[in-house]
Structures are given as structure tokens and as C-alpha cells.
């Protein structure tokens, strides 16, 4: 292996990609964008010239997320609220749960979804009922800000997963994805 040729090739590649470990949010966003572009270029191909580069970029993203963006389980209320927003539904548009008052209580946290309601909304949105089951956790030790930020991120990630699985079911052009979850979140 000729080190001078390797050094020259690396400079050329790094000049166009700036491929390096991620140290801050700006670099992270840039790598996520690069992963998205690579995913679009690769499509559903099992073999592609850019596949190894895609995997390297995904590993850089994964490493940064592991240390800087921990993800907990999504809160069922947040998921329901997100679904309502995405499908442009009002509280009164969810008879599966109950009347507008019941939906309001669930969204405010004064009431939790029961098993019948969980099954009904899971069926309506073609989702696993498990995501609507309240999980117990040790979140009481986290700050309110951290909890809120974490819940918003979990909801965004869940939504990206849902959108991806819906696209797959409806035979929309398949998209290659990093195994890291955050790379699937696209800003609207």
C-alpha cells in the first residue's frame, strides 16, 4: 500500500465530504444529510459502490448518538398527539377512544388509554399496540426539560419509523437506511 497515494486520495475525499468523527450538532446534522443523500443514491441495491461509505457514515452517526442523543421509549400520549397532527385529526375524530372529553383527558395525562382503546387506535393506524402501552421508567430523576426533549425526539423517531414502514407497505421507492434511528428523521 502506497501511503503517498492513500494520503492524496484521502485529501481529495475529505475535501468533498469532510469525513471525520462527529464532535458537535452541526457536524452531526451534516453527516445525517450525507447519509440521506447516500441512501437516495443507493436505493434498494444490494451492491453499490457507495454502500461501504454509507455504512461508515452511519457508524459515525451511531457513535455520536450513543454518547450525545440517548433515546428512551416514546410516551403513548405524545404518539397519539403526533398521529392526530399528521392525520389532521381533532379530538372528536377519534371515536375509537371515546368522546372529545375522554381524548382530551388522555392527551393531558389525567387519564391513560385502556386496552380496548389501545387495540382500536393501533388497528386504525396499522401500528403495534405495544407503542400505546405506558412504560414505567426512572424518568423522575431527569429534569423536566430533558424529559420533554426526550419525548419529542422519541415521537419524531417513532414517526419516522412509522412513515418508513408505511412507505414499504405501499410499495413506494425503497430507501436504504442506517440502522441508527435518528438518520431516518427528516426535518419538515
Topology of this structure?
Layout lengths: L2 H15 L7 H18 L8 H18 L7 H11 L13 H9 L6 H10 L19 H26 L19
Helix pairs in contact: 2-3, 4-7
Would you mind describing this structure in some detail?
With 188 residues, the chain is mainly α. The chain has two domains: 3-68; 76-169, lambda repressor-like DNA-binding domains (434 Repressor (Amino-terminal Domain), Orthogonal Bundle). It has helices spanning 3-17, 25-42, 51-68, 76-86, 100-108, 115-124, 144-169. It is elongated. The termini are far apart. Residues 138-149, 169-175 and 180-188 have low confidence and may be disordered.
Total domain units: 2
Helices and strands, in N-to-C order? HHHHHHH
Low-confidence stretches: 138-149, 169-175, 180-188
User: Going by CATH, what is the homologous superfamily of the largest domain?
Assistant: lambda repressor-like DNA-binding domains
Query: What is the average per-residue confidence, as pLDDT, rounded to a whole number?
Result: 78
Number of helices: 7
Distance between the termini: 45 Å
Biggest β-sheet description: none
Beta-strand percentage?
Answer: under 5%
Structural class label: mainly alpha
How many strand elements? 0
Assembly type of the chains comes to single chain
In percent, how helical is the residue content? 55-70%
The CATH architecture designation of the largest domain is Orthogonal Bundle
CATH topology of the largest domain: 434 Repressor (Amino-terminal Domain)
Q: What spatial form do the alpha-carbon principal axes imply?
A: elongated
